[in-house]
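Blinded run. Sample ID left blank on purpose so nobody reads anything into the name before looking at the predicted structure. Input follows.
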Amino acid sequence: MVPRAVLDTNVWVSALLWKGNPHRILLVALDGEIKAITSTDILDEVERVLRLDKFNLDEEEIKGLLKVVYGASEIIDINENFKIKIRDEKDKIITDCALNGNADFVVSGDKDLLDLRLVEDVRIVNPKEFLDVLSR
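Blinded prediction complete.
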């Protein structure tokens, strides 16, 4: 069975802009070896971050990068908001997506999420840990 994983915004942005473990995860998703699960809230956040001045991306570059995310993802509807105790309420878009999308993993570099380690039966791991699991 193909693992289902929610990639946090920081993982998407890193995957799109640089090489490294997040980029490897993107390639695995594009190859269909994992199912990347996302929501419109996460997509909106990825777009907002890509538009930050520090990345100096023009409109065409942003559209191209978002097209990659759409092509690598299954976009799910958030039908239920779960009562997860989490330090940063903004991270609820990630946990809600994972639980609504029947994800096996959340992949993140966010300490607030990583400290949870588990939400119901969804494992929360960093990109390296995720790649290690996939290589087993």
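Unblinding after everyone has recorded impressions. The mean pLDDT is 95.
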